[in-house]
Amino acid sequence: MAKRDYYEVLGVDRSADADGLKKAYRKLALQYHPDRNPDDPEAEEKFKEASEAYAVLADPEKRRAYDRFGHEGVAAGGGPGFSDFGDMGAFGDVLNDLFGDLFGTRGGGGARRRGRGRRGADLRYQLDLELREVLTGKDAKLSIPKMRPCGSCSGSGARAGTQPETCGRCRGTGQLMFQQGFFRISRPCDACGGAGEVVRERCPSCRGQGRVESQQTLSVRIPAGVEHGTRLRLAGEGEAGLEGGPPGDLYVDVAVRPDPFFTRDGPDLHCQVPVQFVQAALGAEIEVPTLEGRVTMRIPEGTQSGRVLRLAGEGLPGLGARSRGDVLVQIFVEVPTKLTQRQRELLEQFAEESGAEVSPVTKGFLDKLRDVLS
Fold this sequence. Notes:
- By secondary structure, the protein is an alpha+beta fold.
- The chain contains 9 helices and 15 strands.
- The protein is elongated.
């Protein structure tokens, strides 16, 4: 079957410029690409036909031969069967764009992208805080051993006075691209390791690595109200990359130490305070510790053991909030274990005068017990 005219295949005039050819081909390639038309032999053939036409017309020399001699003028070459994608000129560029449209990527190692080396490792640091430091936040100083760019070669890995050379094998791309059928295959350049550059004379300070180990001190602001287990990310503060690659990140994990007096529930703090049974019975004012010092709290008359009293606004701030939680104080009544003779006499007198009087708490307990046993 005779081949159709390449201009007819692309749907352009013979006077079409390079931009017009490119637009026409991209439209057809996106329409008939096999990935968008699975199990459709007709679409696959149209894609091949359009690719062949564009591969010839996008090359000025081949286009002149085609305009003079037709298909016979390019019978010995042309077509998209090249082995090195970097030699395909405009056809390679537009196919690179095409794959970006199809798979959501751009410049994925194409012939004009430089290699970026390897990204530096991420680092993790655990920062321990006291509960009182959560109240106000903290400006922490972190001393971290890590790999940093070499000062002698500014991270290039080359001896002072020299520069890395563009890799001749990948032409500075860091990638070797191959065409198999209508699909690209890429792999890091084996000559430069994907860096796109080759160091001929290595820096003696870092032995050509471009980085050295050193101690670095960083300042980090820990916000008030931070929770145990919070992770803060410091972008670019990890280890330096290799061969010009970007640095990693530093992750600071916050660990709040257990407090001997308070337990935390979000912005609220819980604690237990003992009172004498006389204070609970008659009522009293007692001092209760908070994160900012002692405050006076009123114990109501007849307070029962286990009752929870609230100190509003004496807790922790919420993360990013101005308001503070509360301190919840649970009262437990201490019963004396040793009594003097006088104390015993007074308590016996109290018991005698109380007689059959039943307190509300005791009455409630007796009612529940009666329900269980009935």
